[in-house]
């Protein structure tokens, strides 16, 4: 019976993609759906039983396929929310594709590409995300100049040179919080003033199945150069989270460090008041802040969509709010870079109207402007 359910869901997904309705090819992420369908066909054609996790993926794929059809019927993606929805779908489809590829390779281990090579390729795709401090091309980032200057001043101000400081960058999804941090993190003057500099994504990693507090502190220690075997030894032999936070403190003490805590989401008060110091009536594992030395000019930048959470971590007076881009020129440049075709957009007759339309539809969100450009790029003839 279980296999019949998977077969039914697979048939429904294939019929949706391969139907006679030619408008299906216009739905968002159509090519991704086709790639996933090909992987599923290979998996179902195998003589091995279909993995139980495939059912959940097929339920999701059928639901999100319907969602994309509904977006198409709106005759254009006319709101930032639609564009961010498409971006969310893109990320989920990429994740499903990686997982299906791994499943297929288990069933067909000698399909011409080594398992090790596939894992490395998959890892490279996974790493190019907010989990990295990748150097962004600042010539392709628009509208952030004032924000970069003000954040640099906050980090480098001389009057608080030797004091700990935590700053929060807040704003809605797609507004550029991570991009702004990457620009600052890789500035030459910032590099010269802070050592070590580490980047830690606070969101739960797909492979994490442990307490997020443990996962984050372990991630920080690894970023600081502590081998994973040693991190696990500290956890197992030195009183768990308490030992990890003590080790983190020892790694940072006496150093003018810079730590980016990107995409903070956990609202537990354990993460609050990062400027707090360990006192006699407290234990190491009573607060995240106790792993961060306070006397040598260390800096922490927190990014979050949740302003109240950021306030809890860094204090209301240290919040930097990112606002939508107000300059149509910035949104236009982001859109144009994403299209990657200067011939198409070099001199349209209604240029100013088009710029205004892009700015209105993306709502001043850089990610939405980028998604609009990518959508147009996919529609262009190859």
From TrEMBL:
<dbReference type="GO" id="GO:0006952">
    <property type="term" value="P:defense response"/>
</dbReference>
<protein>
    <submittedName>
        <fullName>Probable disease resistance protein At5g45490 isoform X1</fullName>
    </submittedName>
</protein>
<feature type="region of interest" description="Disordered">
    <location>
        <begin position="100"/>
        <end position="121"/>
    </location>
</feature>
<dbReference type="GO" id="GO:0043531">
    <property type="term" value="F:ADP binding"/>
</dbReference>
<dbReference type="InterPro" id="IPR027417">
    <property type="entry name" value="P-loop_NTPase"/>
</dbReference>
<dbReference type="InterPro" id="IPR002182">
    <property type="entry name" value="NB-ARC"/>
</dbReference>
<dbReference type="InterPro" id="IPR042197">
    <property type="entry name" value="Apaf_helical"/>
</dbReference>
<feature type="domain" description="NB-ARC">
    <location>
        <begin position="151"/>
        <end position="339"/>
    </location>
</feature>
<dbReference type="Pfam" id="PF00931">
    <property type="entry name" value="NB-ARC"/>
</dbReference>
<keyword id="KW-0611">Plant defense</keyword>
